[in-house]
Amino acid sequence: MPSLLISRSKLFSNLQSICNIVNTNIACVVKDNAYGHGIIEISRLLSEFGIKSVFVKNNFEAIKIKDLFQHITILYPTSFDNLGDNIYFSVSNIDCIYSIKPHTGIELKVNTGMNRNGIEVEELQKVLELIKKNNIKLIGVFTHNGYGDLDNDSLSSEFLLQQKKFIDVKQMVIDFVNKNDMPIPRFHSLSSSGAIKCRNISDDLVRIGIAMYGYLGVDCNLNLKPIAELWANKISSRFLKAGSKIGYDGKYVLKSDCIVSSYDIGYGDGLLRLNENHNEMRTKEGYLILPRMSMDSTSIISDEDSVCFMYNADEIARIFGTIPYEVLCRISPFIEREIID
Amino acid sequence: MPSLLISRSKLFSNLQSICNIVNTNIACVVKDNAYGHGIIEISRLLSEFGIKSVFVKNNFEAIKIKDLFQHITILYPTSFDNLGDNIYFSVSNIDCIYSIKPHTGIELKVNTGMNRNGIEVEELQKVLELIKKNNIKLIGVFTHNGYGDLDNDSLSSEFLLQQKKFIDVKQMVIDFVNKNDMPIPRFHSLSSSGAIKCRNISDDLVRIGIAMYGYLGVDCNLNLKPIAELWANKISSRFLKAGSKIGYDGKYVLKSDCIVSSYDIGYGDGLLRLNENHNEMRTKEGYLILPRMSMDSTSIISDEDSVCFMYNADEIARIFGTIPYEVLCRISPFIEREIID
Prior knowledge:
The structure is a homodimer of 341-residue chains. Chain A is of the alpha/beta class. Chain A has helices at 8-21, 31-35, 39-49, 59-64, 124-133, 157-179, 192-197, 313-320, 324-329; strands at residues 3-7, 25-29, 53-56, 71-74, 87-91, 105-111, 119-120, 137-142, 186-188, 205-208, 228-240, 245-246, 252-253, 258-263, 281-282, 288-290, 298-300, 306-310, 336-340. The first copy, chain A, has two domains: 8-208, Alanine racemase (TIM Barrel, Alpha-Beta Barrel), CATH 3.20.20; 228-340, Lyase, Ornithine Decarboxylase, Chain A, domain 1. Chain A contains nine helices and 19 strands. In chain A, strands 2, 3, 4, 5, 6, 7, 8, 9 and 10 form a nine-stranded parallel β-sheet that branches. Chain A is elongated.
């Protein structure tokens, strides 16, 4: 069966590179099964590295790793029921506040211009009053700057505008908590690319996701290395003559005599489905992957016992007109994860 | 959180329609988490309908449903260790035979022209000898006709050639088992589209996958109904002015003032990632889904508490230049399944 090899040394090297240039705390994003890598496996490694604070997708993910970190924030809670003193809930909407029990720890998400999730800045004062009135523990206040990913080293005016808006949010929150004798919450706004571009960060932490997995989209001389490789094993082999047709509707026609093998991975395992409309795709070893990919198997001009289908999600993303995030996070959770050095 | 609603009555209606026109036994394909629908939920319903025989992807899937059927065949075994008397292993390659213990029940896969998996017809005699010599139980012999899916009612010459080749395979197997006092195995070659187009079937069963989930690609007056709908819930809403930018890099710009809400589903939940290069995509209710989709949330011009993102995988497949199989089988297994009438 296929397996996803996770390199401990590459993950640690990526984390160290990021720590070296970011002048604040690093929290890690392990949501969506750690961007497809395996939330339990990645969380164990992060804990070993010394990471104390992480972000997960929902309550189910938080429960899986609850003993590994001092601080786990659920970005998209499925309920606000207490899951442990180290597990906090993101709140993106004023109506939620009414269903949260006293003493529950929350992080308040504020919209600063991405116009996606979070309360509006104009609602902030009212929400803070409600939090105080209902005796909810305000652990953090954060936003998501959606303008950090542009493919260059500079920071766009939209990025800077969102950052400026968040500075105002911080000031409003600090004024409120000081006036009401509440503890100052932690503040954060930046994910990987913003954190790495924006060298002088005044937030309490940054949320590192894609960069620790080895991708960034912008070149920042960080020497990030993709930490995962996806391997599959041969099902069967055959020698075929030039002109032989392969796969559904015989869409691939062999150009010369060769050995073609099928391997035990397909789009049912989370690969994007290669068809005759895509550009050429090759394994790490350089073997040609033949369209159309099947749900559980893929034909390759190769006779190897095993081949590496994914070693760099950027390459695959380019072929499919998408981003490495999508390539990674859809790797089937049913595929075996193996930690290697 | 999002949920996948599975309609019991639509599944049963699809199965009944197929039973009505196919003149042999129906076995069901529940591999790849039942094409993304949920292998346990679908298998329970199939068992209730009276299905006795199914096909799964690997050993892990077989174990999940081992008490529900008389006959489970693993198409891509991860090992040949005994899992129970009702669980059989597909064998696609001559070398496997040597690692299979005596009395293990197998189904032999033969390549009849798809040139993907299976032993070659030329190897058949040798493999049958080995099976006999090693005292392996030959439960079935099958092939996969990869030419049944063309978008019309007719059967191509390639389809008919594969069928003819399989008739020869059957005769070779029958001659061998008769000569050696072995029981006659079951024979099968057709999946949904081939089974439905080819009205007079001489095989012992057909393998029905995509059609029971409500899709076919060809119109055969069967009135198949997609059995699943994917719903998501509102995270937060905001009123935005025309010209407001939404999501990563502000790629979507609102054409008029309106309420935009974010919903708790994204490409991390298995949706294909909508970006600005795709055609317009709408919910079942007709609300416009705004690119770029995020990993965990999607913005829609809607103020509803919940909306239906997928009601017909064909529609989504068209937008992304793929097939409904890919749309369905990648629905995250972590999404809650709910059986409705």
